[in-house]
């Protein structure tokens, strides 16, 4: 994956104004091209992986993004302080901030991205649509809210026809987006969308568009230089999303034809040329079942999912960005671009899918990324790193490339099965489940996939007795080995034996409140027997391989963490708690209390002490990891004491308020 445009001539030191996996990704290419790299970080980020890849690093704040990664003045100051002459913004944060791009130019710093003017033209969705409608680009019917009263908004939305989609005019990435199915939901949805937009993008401006039901989300990668050259590098299908947050991306799109690709590519190039675009950009479309496509938005930056395009095109998009920023001309034409094979990417997130995907924080106790030919891992974490509540929860991207889609899918499943993460809850098992789903396997996924398949939420697999037995036996063998290392030399024939027969041992394991007693008999140094009703399970350990009744087991890994036992299989991961040493584990929350489901900030309180509430009423909004989460009363009652005020930080399980009879 090389883009041989020659050495970078106009800058030598590159500051990456970002963090996590994208900072690591940019540094790898920059260093290959001979550039010095500078990382920025916060005190909360001081143990992060991206610092390991930089030649130099500089602290820009304590934790919150508003006072660090979103503070343009601090980024500029860091660049000057380190002697950097160029800044790569990555994605998110300041990457689509036209004022930041202008400030870089004013401060004689090269901004690796498009001009401030191009960013500005596409940054506001409402203004962008006006420009592109005039240029003949197919757009979704919609309107701006500015200057309209509530009655007019409802009438216009009704004229378009429900369902409608509310969108933040100033940004993307799913923030500030709400699907509204009827006029009765409109007012409240607008309030929430405006609040999310203000919090994320610094602007409460929103637009309303006709919702295209169950389309595919297909985006075209474009690339332009400063000399009028522009190409499109295939497409990506990003249809599998949850609340407009992409989960899985692939290239090419499973239903794409050469004719349709050319049509969409030519429209995307016309968009880029209309605004005199420079660098890497993505023009996003909604594609319906009859191959009609509608402009959605243009992202004036590198996309999270760019690796799938790199793998099937053989191009390094970051190298191309640096080349264009260096005022070099593109040396490839549209005819030079050949797409080969199929690539699929998944995003590994620190989140709890069983708890409405609430963000997860904690220390990464174990991280094993898959080492398989055909697999690319873009990591953003390392063992020992602390995941904080301040930033987006993406931990790593895992991408598979093969000749066919089915082979890429098999390869990606195998890699996820060998991906081991302990310390924060994550979506590994969900990703395995989605990739195994018949709809996805057939390439029939649309933006309605997630809501259709998980209409009742994600329910993780519960362990069977065999999983308890495997965890118990692995723990027993682990303890035997520890004891053996501490003991005086003992002959093998005496291990597990006493003058009263074979030694018996037991362990009490719990999983989300369910506890099982597992009784074992040691038949020697490498053999255990466990009885399950009338069935005898014989576990043996040989060369670190566990076998059951002589057969191999579906077990990818096992890990002992203080008092927790982690078991990883090809489809699931289970965390058991050892109740011999700990009180019974119970994660059920009392319905008479409102507890914080995750760390965050109290964004709004909808009730006051003494107010009457009914089960299902919203009582507060918690903001965490740039998302707003509604807190709901679990029963009828009266609000008791409220322990936090608006704007205050809370930790997971903090008691926010009481509900009395």
Number of DSSP-assigned strands? 42
- Biggest sheet features: 9 strands, antiparallel
Mean pLDDT, to the nearest integer, reads 90
Radius of gyration based on Cα positions: 27 Å
- Pairing-aware structural class of the strands and helices? alpha+beta
List keywords for this structure.
661 residues, alpha+beta, 16 helices, globular
Any overview of this molecule?
With 661 residues, the protein is an alpha+beta fold. The protein is 26% helix and 32% strand. The protein has a 9-stranded antiparallel β-sheet with strand order 31-30-29-28-27-26-34-33-32, covered by helices on one side. It has an 8-stranded antiparallel β-sheet with strand order 14-13-10-11-12-15-22-20. Helix 4 runs antiparallel to helix 5.
Question: What's this entry about, in short?
Answer:
With 661 residues, the chain is an alpha+beta fold. Helix content is 26%, strand content 32%.
Question: Secondary-structure blueprint of this entry?
Answer:
Layout: E1 13-16, H1 20-32, E2 36-41, H2 50-53, E3 56-59, H3 72-82, E4 86-88, H4 98-106, E5 110-111, H5 116-123, H6 125-134, E6 142-144, H7 150-160, E7 164-168, E8 178-180, H8 186-201, E9 206-210, E10 216-224, E11 230-242, E12 245-251, H9 258-274, E13 279-287, E14 293-299, H10 306-313, H11 317-325, E15 342-349, E16 351-352, E17 358-359, E18 362-363, E19 366-368, E20 375-379, E21 386-387, E22 394-402, H12 405-417, E23 420-422, H13 428-436, H14 438-441, H15 449-453, H16 465-486, E24 497-498, E25 501-502, E26 504-511, E27 514-524, E28 527-532, E29 535-542, E30 545-548, E31 551-552, E32 557-561, E33 564-568, E34 573-578, E35 593-595, E36 600-605, E37 612-613, E38 618-624, E39 627-632, E40 637-642, E41 649-650, E42 655-660
Parallel strand pairs: 1-2, 1-4, 2-3, 4-5
Antiparallel strand pairs: 6-9, 7-8, 7-9, 10-11, 10-13, 11-12, 12-15, 13-14, 15-22, 16-17, 18-21, 19-23, 20-22, 24-25, 26-27, 26-34, 27-28, 28-29, 29-30, 30-31, 32-33, 33-34, 35-42, 36-38, 36-41, 37-40, 38-39, 40-42
Helix pairs in contact: 4-5, 12-13
